[in-house]
Amino acid sequence: DVVMTQTPVSLSVSLGGQVSISCRSSQSLVHNNGNTYLSWYLQKPGQSPQLLIYKVSNRFSGISDRFSGSGSGTDFTLKISRVEPDDLGVYYCGQGTQYPYTFGAGTKLELK
Amino acid sequence: AVQLVESGGGLVQPKESLKISCAASGFTFSNAAMYWVRQAPGKGLEWVARIRTKPNNYATYYADSVKGRFTISRDDSKSMVYLQMDNLKTEDTAMYYCTAGSGSFDYWGQGVMVTVSS
């Protein structure tokens, strides 16, 4: 199975600040079709997860440009700029390249 | 707007069965791969199962933890996806989310709670 390692486990940020979350996979996430199925999700308290970024760097419909994804192969990063109160929650990376699909353990974003 | 609405959760005893359902709307259901993802209380996300579309022969895939016990199915005429869960174990206790997407989980339902306890 592809193991997804997210760091850090938690982050404290001031409103308006910027943060980065790292996600590393134990194997390359490049699919046979050339796509890299690495995505990022946010789960706000008491809510279902929501998709933020798909295929490494594509923002999902309605997602602010304050969120950006980058990376390749096995090393990926989510950056959040100008953090707002609504950004708080747990962030997960996930891979859809190889079965079984797997997720990172999550990064909790809290206010400083 | 895309909507995924799960139903059928509840409390069951170990080794019992339960079938949960998901009603989809707001997109062309027959063209979409569908998934179940679960989250145990206080824990992270775990992919459970996937079912592809008719052109892909409704192929199904499962996490090792549920293989042989869970069955995902769909009814394109009703825009419904199901998860039949047999021989339930206490470790299957979780919120179960119905999701749709391709290579990522684009849309999520509100989830349905399944509790396995004696």
Notes on the structure:
The complex is a heterodimer of chains A (112) and B (118). Helix content of chain A is 0%, strand content 48%. In chain A, strands 2, 4, 5, 6, 9, 10 and 11 form a seven-stranded mixed β-sheet that branches. A four-stranded antiparallel β-sheet of chain A has the order 1-3-8-7, with no helix packed on it. Chain A is globular and about 40 Å long. The N and C termini of chain A lie far apart (36 Å). The model of chain A has no long low-confidence stretch (mean pLDDT 97). By secondary structure, chain B is mostly beta strands. Chain B has no helices and eleven strands. Chain B is globular. The chains are: A mainly beta (112), B mainly beta (118). Chains A and B meet through strand 5 and strand 10 of A and strand 5 and strand 10 of B.
Question: What are the key terms here?
Answer:
heterodimer; A: 112 residues; mainly beta; seven-stranded mixed sheet; 0% helix; globular; B: 118 residues; four-stranded antiparallel sheet
What's the structural blueprint in terms of helices and strands?
The complex is a heterodimer of chains A (112) and B (118).
Chain A: E1 4-7, E2 10-13, E3 19-25, E4 38-43, E5 50-54, E6 58-59, E7 67-72, E8 75-80, E9 89-95, E10 102-103, E11 107-111
Parallel strand pairs in A: 2-11
Antiparallel strand pairs in A: 1-3, 3-8, 4-5, 4-9, 5-6, 7-8, 9-10, 9-11
Chain B: E1 3-7, E2 10-12, E3 18-25, E4 33-39, E5 45-51, E6 60-62, E7 70-75, E8 80-85, E9 94-101, E10 107-108, E11 112-116
Parallel strand pairs in B: 2-11
Antiparallel strand pairs in B: 1-3, 3-8, 4-5, 4-9, 5-6, 7-8, 9-10, 9-11
